[in-house]
Amino acid sequence: MAYSDISRSISELIESHGIPKREVYLDNENSGQIIPEALKAMEDAYRWSGRGHPSITHLMGWISYQALYEATLRITSAINCSPEEIIYTHSGTEANNLAITGSALSSPNKRKILVSSIEHLSVVFPAERLEKQGFKVIKIPVNKDGFVNLDFISKHVDRETLIVSVAVVNHEIGTIQDVEAVRDTVRDKNKDVLIHTDACDALGKIPLDMKKLDVDLASFSSHKIYGPKGVGALYVKEGVRLEPIIHGQLSTQKLWPGVENVPGIIGFSKAVEYMHNNFKENVLRMIKLRDRLINGILERVDHAMLNGPFGEKRAPDNVNISFLYCEGEALTVELSLNGIYVSSGSACTSRVLEPSHVLLAIGRRHEEAHGSLLMKVTPFHVLEDIEYVLDVLPDAVKRLRSISPVKPLKQVR
Ligand SMILES: Cc1ncc(COP(=O)(O)O)c(C=O)c1O
């Protein structure tokens, strides 16, 4: 379908949908709001400090360079690393691509890559592309809660292994992985293997100290921490060598050429600073909202099951529930009509209508994966938002089940 046709049909959808009286935005996996401090700093930067090109030698260039450096210090002091270890990209996707493909280009003789079977597609796809070029890609299995199998890693890491990639927090099911244990398992077998962690969903949600984590590479995405879209970063530990995967000139950083999005990076740094300075209150608040939402849904809706672990090994914002005998996509539309915005299956593939590879990897059946909803609370939600969802969602599920051709053996409530 042509872009203009899609745009016309989307305009019609917006018009027929209308603006609901009450709105609760829970699709923070896909993107979300910007922290006001970040927005304000960006507005100022577009007018002044972020206007010039940070690599150019005139006053506006120097001012821009200084603003970029100060933004970087905000980020590095939150995650405990040095400014030279941060490479800006324009998304978490680009950071993940640079980590996987950049390391393959820098060590072409090592041809074995291990990635967990529940990684974000921006890790899985570059690995699969390398597989087509002759690399051996091994997917690390996970248990029913999404924890990687350390024995499997130990068995498969050898002298040929280039990189092992396991996310600290899984974006779909919220599993908080023991990356330090993964790191030690890998280094016990071969200390030269690179350890990459996708930390896009971890920043601001769990404590992150790069010195303590001691991985070689870690990816970040601004909009996952309530900063602007279109900014990402890759932490590259001092001494780790990567080859650039895009080429050009004029950048303060060789690994990702092209002018830095200085106003965006300033917004990102302000979001990081806000989440760092308010870490404890934010996390406690999110856990309270998360648990109210999970428990409320499981109490009120039959044939519903939580995906991912219960309790402290779950990211504080993550709620992922499968509703049997219910189509996830239809449920997102039904909820949208009531002003509740969530995503279904895998958020990142929800337009593709493929069951989430993450849910399949933890052992969910296709119909369970298709009937799943992913919701992410933020520190900016209030309890009334969650109560509103708990009022609306059970009826929405009931209505869809009443018209679904697939029914449970026992009558659904
Ligand atoms: C874990 C994880 N990695 C990578 C990405 C990609 O980040 P971006 O949207 O900035 O490309 C996301 C985005 O949702 C994510 O959740």
Textual characterization of the structure:
This protein is of the alpha/beta class and 413 residues long. The protein has two domains: 3-30 and 279-402, Aspartate Aminotransferase, domain 1; 36-277, 3-Layer(aba) Sandwich (Aspartate Aminotransferase, domain 2), CATH 3.40.640.10. It has 14 helices and 13 strands. It has helices spanning 3-17, 36-47, 59-79, 92-106, 121-132, 150-156, 179-189, 210-213, 262-277, 279-300, 328-337, 357-361, 366-370, 383-402, and strands spanning 24-25, 86-89, 112-116, 136-140, 161-165, 194-198, 217-221, 232-236, 304-306, 318-323, 340-341, 343-344, 372-376. β5 (161-165), α7 and β6 (194-198) form a beta-alpha-beta unit. α10 runs parallel beside α14. It binds pyridoxal-5'-phosphate. Pyridoxal-5'-phosphate (PLP) binds at residues 29, 91-93, 96, 120, 122, 167, 171, 198, 200-201, 221, 223-224, 232, 348.
